[in-house]
User: Fold these one by one.
Assistant:
Number 1:
Amino acid sequence: MRSGICSITVLSTLIDYYGVPSDTPGMATRPPGTPRSQVEHVEAAMSEAVGEPRFLPHLVVHETEAWVLACPEVLSELVGAPKLAGRIRALTVSSGGPELVNDGPDTAPSKRLRSLVPGYRKTVDGPDAIGLTGVDAVRRQCPHADAWFHAVDERLGTIRRS
């Protein structure tokens, strides 16, 4: 690569907010409010700390398993548990959406999935459910994820027009 020339248009992160280290920029100064507003605060602080306009930090509210919670029917079929979809829908409705499922040590999305599906395989079942359901379904149910996908599309010039 020649000096001064770089082909990177956008560099992003995909990190579970639930496990972000306490010394991450913005963590110590999070304002009270919703999980999404706190995540946005930390992302802004990360962006400011890096100081590079191509850097687009993204923290998943609360874990990537929140995206799996947006795929109840497919996950139910994948794991062979017909009643699972209804249980997941009830959980996400009572929480206000997949991204708002509680982030406590025993109630984080991954813990909830493991309690609903004892044989749940985090690195197989979750990605399969998201892949088979499609990112558009995740975007419809997870506003913070949708904002990130939109920002990436915008920076890459790949925004889809309806």
Number 2:
Amino acid sequence: MPKSRIRKKADYTPPPAKQAASIKLEGRGWVAPVMLALFLIGLAWIVVFYVTDGSLPIEALGNVNIVVGFGFIAAGFAVSTQWK
């Protein structure tokens, strides 16, 4: 019986180098200032509430002013998810 031909394996060729994807940073300049503003507004709201013994920022809300302050802070965290 005749001998079969031995196939020669090709040498290892590494995959082509990947090009770095270009990141578009356009249109996101508003995120950091809005995020920081919301954090500071929320913090200021809570501090003013405690310093004035509940008479400011909105006396009619009572202790709900704390929730409003934390709401501003939470909104700041929500905006921070858009930061790239």
Number 3:
Amino acid sequence: MNRPLSSYRELTVWRDGIALVKTCYLITRTFPKDELFGLTAQIRRSAVSVPANVAEGYGRGTRKDYVRHLLIAQGSLKELETHLIIAAEVDLAAKTDIEPVLGRCDQLGRGLGALIRSLRAKTD
């Protein structure tokens, strides 16, 4: 039997998002200091945006707002993937370090998509 969630912190997509943020902070610590306001900031900001939007959407009063914030989280995730690919392409990070993170992004994206579909099905 499914019980209602008591908090967004119980959501797998939120937990996975937090883990992804931690990984991104670790990766960007190795970036040169002159990237602090460049890709370092962009990667961190887009990573933080994913679980933050999951939480914010959960806290909104309507399912429509929740879905909208989950879609924003998906967009931030795609932005993050792009920043990570660029970091590897310009040799700020090794491709071998970035590839597993991109895999985690794919998994998180699938989870967000499933949650969005589930919420939309309840609306229709």
